[in-house]
Write a structure and sequence with these properties.
Length: 469
Amino acid sequence: MSTTKQYLEGSFLLTAAGRLKPASSIPVPALNDSLLKTHSECQGPNVSVFYSDEGGVVVTEGEGCVMSGPDGEFLDAANNVAGVGHSNERVVKAGREELARIQTNGRFLHPTRSRYIRKLLDTLPEELDTIYLVNSGSEANDLALRMAKQYARMKGNKNPDHTICIDAAYHGHTQSIVDISPYKWRQCTDGQNYHKPHVHVVSVPDTYRGVHRGPNGGEMYAKEVEDIVDITGGVGSFIHEAIMGCGGQIVMPEGYLPKAYKKVRESGGICIADEVQTGFGRAGESFWQFEKYGVVPDVVTMGKPMGNGYPIGGVAVRREVAEAFAASGIEYFNTYGGNSVACAIGEAVLDAIEEDGLQKNADHVGKYLRAKLSELMAKNELVGDVRGYGLFLGVEFIAQNSTEEEIIPNADLCKFVVDHLKNNRIITSRDGPDGNVLKIKPPLTFTENDADRLMAGIEAALGDNVQRN
């Protein structure tokens, strides 16, 4: 069967109903069928599975940038959770040894936690000198909102519960965080009516295809934030991803964050940088992506790669924010947040990034891959934009009849590329408001050879796309 005929209708992009779009071009093995049956009968109907209509992909093992199982081996170019690589020996050893000793309530003192927190703080600007440990990125963002409300209230802010967020943003799955994640609530059947009155949504700061383009786009997008603060009389918080993931790998444009931060802070609000996807060396040149923008947030949230897949998240804050939070009189504790196993694993992740040179690798391989993608863009008019830092990159596909004035998203082509790659045993994903952005965010162990294989796969997909048209 030709590669073109193997083209899958399904992709990583979910429909509003929470299912992958249907396809039937790959036979469903008995094991996959059994697992899907249990999944559909015993889990929630909106709990999604990648490639469900093709039988899913069964993954039972991994090493470095490779995932494997009964369905074979796949190069993982999509998994920013296993930041230091699947089954990293250092991480596995740390977790196994600490779990064999003890795992208990985080309110007991433990030397591993203290050591880990010191190491984590060393990666951050000195202004961010206080850490809260939690269990996930969603929980980190939820806690950040609690802190913002209390801080703004103490500062005399008129609207401490109000938050400015960016359209198409995704910050997590708790109720308070879904409320500030338009990417999620716009999927609702009543999405137009879901918008909460305390949530103010500004445009995706996209200077390529957004409402404000060109060199002054960043300042124009910042004016949207300024206008909301002026109209409302102040907000409790402004939250943004360091690079928008679900929003289409959107890098914050020059001039955007400094102006937005300044205005929000003048009203007694705080600025939250969500580094759940982009932190821990992925940016390459810097450990945290926000460092590329010349700002220091009041709060930085983290998760996903923090434990290389083990549940751990964190909130780094300025001391004055932490003191305002404590002044509410409500004791804060988190039963498993900061337990010794999580901290041992977290420390092993930091050690792997430093001692194995993974941040440098993200910088080197990321620049290598981006240069290759830019070469492809120069010779293929269907590749409209290449963006990102380190190993957090995006490729935007556009229609052939696009013009400078009207850039038309090409979701069909992006879906074809993602599924073509999957058929050739390379896992990627796609996203963005129009589903036309290929997301590349592999483990930081990704090599030049891996990048070459990915590039060959993308070019083959684009070649076969010509044949199918």
